[in-house]
Amino acid sequence: MNNWSDYPIFLAVAETGSLTAAGEHLGISQPTVGRRIKALETQFGAPVLTKDEGRLVPTDFGYLVLDHIKRMGEEADAITRSSATLEDSLEGTIMLAVSEGIGDWWLPSVMRIFQQEHPEVAIDINVDFRSANLAQREADIALRWMGPGSQNSLIGRKVSSSGFGLFASQSYVQKHGLPETITDLVNHNGIEMHVGKEKFWPKDTKGNLLPTPKTTFKTNNLLAHHHALLAGYGIGMMPYGGLCGDTELVRILPEVERVEDLWVVAHEDLKKSARVRAAFDFLIDALQKDHDHFRHGTPSVFNHLHFHGVNPHDGALHIQNGKSKKPHITAA
User: Rounded to whole angstroms, how far apart are CA atoms 271 and 134?
Assistant: First the structure.
């Protein structure tokens, strides 16, 4: 008789390579994992795991079992998605997966407009640079940079693009001066920002990173990166749309920028849900209306957000006592 609960345990061991790691992932003890694997092998009358260079890996028979387990998981996900497609009402929760830099400052206020129009809908925003698995209902809708992703059965729309430029604090520029050329960057201090495994920095036409300053601060968090800029650690890259009126930043090498496309993505099954479809269409419309805000840093069209954007191509930005003025140091 099949014990269905043993299958996820076998899958976890196959993915992690050890009984201990699988137990930590599943929240059960290592001896329990071992007993369940033994029970599975007894049921099949054949081993499903073997050791290879210190790791537990599936046997040939184990790989066949894994194929069936993964298909079972896909069917279970399809059942979950099917229940969502039966929803014709605009009630329930909308789960959004969004990266930092948009999910933590622009999206909450904009989605409030949607929630006011549909008061029975609750908004759930997961802010993470990791791509959510839409097939497994980790989110209903994802806002993704650079592409819709490689998961099957996704519906995606490229709706906008975001510009990023190099900036430094006024105090840093007064102390260290401005780089006049791209190669001068190596003689400056810099703030290193990582998005997943990628170092986020401007690229040349061949896709190679431009010369980088000496790293004095490193982070994978955009807010920490912004505060490090303001603290004067060095030169860093900021989204134009993220520049608010209470900052004091100088634009470095205005001709240098990075542009990333922004996609709105959902699973094709969930698009049949009235609630998800309404939110999907709303987000596309809102991002298209605010294209200039993200691409060039102009003020957001959503006035209630109180974004006082500035043109990043002005070369420098100095905010003092709520009023903007040009600093005495400007880009060469």
Answer: 12
Q: In degrees, to the nearest 5, what angle opens at C-alpha 143 toward C-alphas 196 and 301?
A: 120
How far is it, in rounded angstroms, from Cα 255 to Cα 180?
11
Q: Which CATH entry fits the domain spanning 6-85: 1.10.10.10, 3.40.640.10, 1.10.8.60, 3.40.250.10?
A: 1.10.10.10
Three-state SS at 170: helix
- Look up residue 143 and give its two tokens: 């806002």
Q: Tokens 């345990």 label which residue?
A: 9
Residues of the chain with CATH 1.10.10.10: 6-85
Question: Could you report the per-residue pLDDT of 94-125, keeping only the tens digit for each?
Answer: 999 888 878 888 899 899 999 999 998 999 99
pLDDT tens, residue by residue, 321-330: 233 333 222 2
0.85 surpassed by pTM: no
The DSSP annotation for 249-283 comes to EEEEEEEEEEEEEEEEEEETTGGGSHHHHHHHHHH
Contact 189/216 with Cβ under 8 angstroms? yes
What is the spatial distance between Cα 296 and Cα 177, in angstroms, rounded to a whole number? 25
Q: Determine how β-strand 198-199 pairs with β-strand 189-195.
A: antiparallel
Alpha-carbon gap, residue 332 to 39, rounded angstroms: 72
Task: Pick 92-161+262-294's CATH classification: 3.40.50.2300, 3.40.190.10, 3.40.50.300, 3.40.720.10.
Answer: 3.40.190.10
What does CATH list as the number for 162-259+304-324? 3.40.190.290
